[in-house]
Amino acid sequence: MSDEEHQQPQHSQQPEENQTEQELATRTLYIQSKRFYLDVKQNRRGRFIKVAEVGAGGKKSRLLLAMSSAAEFRDYLTDFADHYSSLGPTNSENPPEDGKLKSEIIVKDNRRYYLDLKENQRGRFLRVSEQVSQTIPRGGPRSQIAIPAQGMIEFRDGLTELLEEFGTDDQEPANELPESRSMRVENKMFYFDVGSNRRGVYLRVSEVSVRNNFRTAITIPERSWGKFRDIMAEFAEKAVISGPEQGAPSSQGPPPREEEGVKDEPQGGEE
Predict the structure, then answer these.
(1) For residues 159 and 153, what is the distance between their CA atoms, to the nearest angstrom?
(2) Residue 151, pLDDT score
(3) Eight-class DSSP state of 243
């Protein structure tokens, strides 16, 4: 996914820009006319979740959440969903004066998240705004997403899956993981990303079509890397080389991956 760059001061556990990042997992949610991407990423500061919204017209918005903030947001989603289910039919002719039905705030380091369940002539939705500032509350501009009220439970469940797998700890990873690599072969890109979760370290190999951004991926547990290498070496030794080698891996990191149009297939191999 693109647009994942972000930066924080040295002391903060929040996501940071201009660092080598690894994409550990992703979920795609389709709610009404919108697509939402939930990406777990990791850099030298630790893990975080990027939430991206793509509207029907292709407009993109995003939020960045530390793992602990994502857990707090997940819990609030349950509260908002319960409140939404207790409301009567939408009053499109006479909505509340400010449109707000319920509000909460999450504060994490120099970030503040405003959660507002709102109602307008199109219906009810949860607006989530992120403000980054050293002088909260009078700070910089906000980025925001809007989740249709009917999709709050689905959104919560998607977050829950990721948090159960990767935890809610904001601390830096204990071990330095290898840098991501990439290579191009004809009309395909291959990405090699090393990640970790509570089950251990794994290698995620993604194949992305240059033509339509269609993506598939496999994950290989660290304990199987040696056997995987041996099988690949055996194939390489037996292969008939008909021309110069193409698609040499690059250590410069993969080029940006476009959010829109990328379709994720189920991943396996993390045990």
Answers:
(1) 10
(2) 96
(3) S
Yes or no: say if 217 and 195 are a contact pair by the CB < 8 Å rule. Answer: no
Residue range 121-177, pLDDT digits in tens: 888 999 999 998 754 455 556 789 999 999 999 999 999 999 999 999 876 555 567
Whether 31 contacts 154, CB under 8 Å: yes
Q: What is the pTM of this model?
A: 0.57
Domain residue extents for the chain? 22-166, 175-271
Cα dist from 167 to 68, 91, 198, 225, whole Å:
9, 40, 8, 25
Q: Under 8 Å CB-to-CB from 271, ≥6 apart: which residues? A: 199, 221
Domain 175-271 matching CATH 3.10.450.700: the answer reads: yes
DSSP class of residue 158 equals: H
The domain defined by 22-166 folds into Secreted effector protein pipB2 fold (3.30.2450)
Same fold for the pair 22-166 and 175-271? no
CA distances from 54 to 4, 123, 168, 235, 245 (A): 15, 19, 26, 42, 39
